[in-house]
């Protein structure tokens, strides 16, 4: 066809079992896209409604490692009435082909696999299972970044026609046999969970490292191929290459466990173990021993281990000097001068920032200049354009302005626009104030949060860890800013699947806030909410329920029913009720929460979308598509 909907067909990019992929051009906005027309048809109105629902869910997957779904629809009757997806166009090569052509070593291949895990984790957190992960569905672009294709597309079309096995009424397999988990081969699609994708990641890792699949199913009849995958013993990865024995072999073997409960609980956990191996740190999959931990420490710190004897001598000499320096008091006169200078500098910054906000930001919001009402985002965009070289002679003031703009963009959920302002603020403060200054640490803390929101979880966690070190040194261990950063780091740990570390950190932070800020301080209640959600992630539902219920009651009392923190806890509790199969309670709470979030935060806010997704999954489980 020359056109499909709003898209002009340019050429055929490829053809496979699921359908034909065209290179197409979109009119508004003007861009080239990949348009995938599926071979299936949608025979009923219910199937069409389900397809529309699934397409909306897929469209909300926004991660640098996932090919973006821009649009979806059904072709005109004269073109077959087939469903289609409009996708971000990615120029790249399949994962295994790229690794072979670039002659990547094992560590480089593992680093790529960890990035794929990050993308899969993002989708899993939003209730989307891939079901057909394989190297052909992972393209590595020219910059060396992997991008996952076809998330959830098989489910979007085949869900309601699946029977007791993996076949559809068209005799097709929803998935690719060598990469399908044992439960995917033997159960209905409804019985699958995210751990089926973990198994596929294990198969991909095995093939990426050894050059071959764990099973030989080439040329075998379907039934025999399924039996091979379900029953054959996998040769240890180290049998192909001695260099892969030990931790790498253990990590891949855990992902490939036949029993889902014995696999990694999340893609984030798998990525975490891969990165721990790459950093020569102990992996979680191997039961740790003292000797094992020491071997890892020795590999990371060869010089330190060799110099232990000399180090003890240095400590003995340096201790009295360090003690004297630590207890030396500054004179009252010097302290007073420093405080006065700090007060004057803070006042000058405040005056300059207020002038900018009044003269530029608020002036930009004047409807008489634009002839209509303006949004907060438009006001920020106009104010940001006016910064230019205005503060060239006042870097600390520019840092404060950009810090404010960056955090405001972040609060609106526009993290891409927030990032450059916070990066500039951090650079200016580092140069003008020094790395150890509390304001520098604050900028670093905010930037870490933006990295996390953009899916750069490891980078965000590293930055939070560094900001905590700086803040502790400057402000003390129980300072509110330190506790805020610790809370953020715990959330990052949770996103990485490091649930035990997240729970431990949150428990400590909750206790510290209780001592210094009070039992019902809003941030302490928010930490309790995150703690309850972390317990859920660990599968400790009975412990999570009273934590979330008591926290929600306290937030409604201390804050109010419509406060964003209260609504975030309500969403978590609704999800818990769903997982406990208390569908009526879950629906009541999630529906009420969604209504409030739409009114308070708007339809596009991350929290609103998270609740919308949880409610949609609940309805999907009940096959309610109306």
Approximately how much helix is present in the residues?
55-70%
Q: What's the helix count?
A: 26
Instruction: Flag low-confidence runs.
Output: 157-173, 287-294, 302-332, 362-373
Span between N and C termini?
32 Å
CATH superfamily of the largest domain: Transferase(Phosphotransferase) domain 1
* CATH architectural type of the largest domain: Orthogonal Bundle
Query: Could you say what the CATH topology of the largest domain is called?
Result: Transferase(Phosphotransferase), domain 1
- Overall pLDDT score: 78
* CATH class term of the largest domain: Mainly Alpha
Shape: globular
Report on the structure:
This protein starts with a strand and ends in a 5-residue tail after the last helix. It has 26 helices and nine strands. The protein is globular, with a radius of gyration of 27 Å. A six-stranded antiparallel sheet has the order 1-2-3-4-6-5, with helices on one face. α13 crosses α16 and α23 runs antiparallel to α24. 60% of the residues lie in helices and 8% in strands. The chain is α+β, with helices and mostly antiparallel strands. It folds into four domains: 89 residues, Phosphorylase Kinase, domain 1 (2-Layer Sandwich), CATH 3.30.200; 178 residues, Transferase(Phosphotransferase), domain 1 (Orthogonal Bundle), CATH 1.10.510.10; 110 residues, Alpha Horseshoe (Serine Threonine Protein Phosphatase 5, Tetratricopeptide repeat); 107 residues, Tetratricopeptide repeat domain (Serine Threonine Protein Phosphatase 5, Tetratricopeptide repeat).
């Amino acid at each position: 066809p020359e056109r499909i909907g709003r898209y002009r067909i340019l050429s055929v990019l490829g053809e496979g079992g699921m359908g034909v992929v065209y290179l197409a051009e979109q009119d508004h906005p003007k861009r080239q896209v990949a348009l995938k027309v599926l071979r299936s048809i949608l025979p009923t109105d219910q199937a069409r409604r389900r397809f529309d629902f699934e397409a909306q869910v897929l469209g909300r997957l926004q991660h640098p490692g996932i090919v973006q779904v821009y649009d979806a629809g059904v072709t005109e009757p004269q073109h077959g009435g087939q469903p289609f997806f409009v996708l971000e166009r990615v120029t790249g090569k399949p994962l295994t082909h790229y690794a072979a052509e670039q002659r990547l070593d094992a560590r480089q291949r593992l680093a790529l696999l960890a990035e794929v895990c990050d993308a899969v984790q993002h989708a899993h957190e939003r209730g989307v299972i891939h079901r057909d992960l394989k190297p052909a569905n992972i393209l590595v672009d020219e910059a060396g970044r992997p991008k996952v294709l076809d998330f959830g597309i098989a489910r979007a079309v085949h869900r309601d026609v699946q029977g007791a096995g993996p076949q559809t009424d068209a005799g097709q397999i929803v998935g690719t046999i060598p990469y399908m988990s044992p439960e995917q081969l033997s159960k209905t699609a409804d019985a699958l969970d995210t751990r089926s994708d973990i198994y596929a990641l294990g198969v991909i890792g095995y093939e990426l490292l050894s050059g071959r699949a764990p099973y030989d199913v080439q040329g075998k009849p379907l039934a025999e191929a399924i039996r091979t995958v379900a029953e054959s013993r996998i040769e240890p990865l180290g049998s192909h290459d001695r260099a892969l024995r030990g931790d790498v072999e253990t990590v891949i073997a855990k992902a490939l466990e036949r029993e889902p409960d014995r696999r990694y609980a999340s893609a984030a956990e798998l990525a975490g173990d891969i990165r721990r191996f790459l950093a020569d740190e102990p992996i979680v999959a191997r039961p740790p021993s003292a000797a094992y931990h020491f071997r890892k420490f020795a590999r990371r710190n060869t010089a330190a281990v060799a110099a232990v004897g000399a180090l003890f001598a240095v400590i003995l000499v340096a201790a009295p000097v360090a003690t004297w320096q630590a207890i030396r008091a500054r004179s009252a006169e010097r302290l007073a001068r420093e405080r006065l200078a700090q007060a004057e500098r803070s006042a000058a910054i405040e005056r300059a920032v207020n002038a900018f906000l009044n003269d530029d930001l608020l002036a930009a919001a004047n409807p008489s200049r634009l002839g209509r009402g303006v949004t907060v985002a438009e006001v920020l965009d106009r104010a940001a354009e006016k910064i230019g070289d205005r503060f060239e002679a006042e870097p600390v003031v520019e840092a404060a302005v950009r810090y404010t703009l960056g955090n405001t963009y972040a609060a609106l959920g526009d993290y891409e626009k927030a990032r450059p302002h916070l990066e500039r603020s951090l650079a200016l403060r580092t140069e003008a104030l020094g790395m150890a200054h509390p304001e520098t640490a604050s900028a670093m803390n905010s930037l870490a949060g933006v990295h996390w929101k953009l899916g750069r979880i490891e980078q965000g966690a590293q930055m939070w860890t560094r900001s905590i070190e700086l803040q502790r040194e400057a402000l003390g261990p129980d300072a509110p800013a330190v506790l805020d950063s610790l809370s953020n780091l715990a959330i990052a740990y949770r996103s990485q699947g490091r649930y035990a570390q997240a729970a431990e950190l949150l428990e400590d932070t909750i206790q510290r806030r209780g001592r210094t800020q009070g039992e019902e301080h809003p941030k302490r209640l928010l930490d309790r909410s995150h703690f309850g959600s972390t317990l859920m992630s660990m599968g400790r539902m009975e412990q999570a329920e009273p934590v979330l219920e008591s926290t929600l009651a306290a937030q409604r009392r201390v804050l109010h029913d419509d406060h964003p923190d209260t609504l975030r806890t309500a969403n978590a509790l609704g999800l818990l009720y769903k997982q406990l199969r208390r569908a009526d309670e879950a629906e009541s709470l999630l529906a009420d929460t969604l209504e409030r979030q739409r009114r308070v935060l708007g339809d596009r806010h991350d929290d609103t979308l998270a609740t919308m997704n949880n409610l949609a999954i609940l309805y999907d489980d009940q096959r309610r598509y109306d």
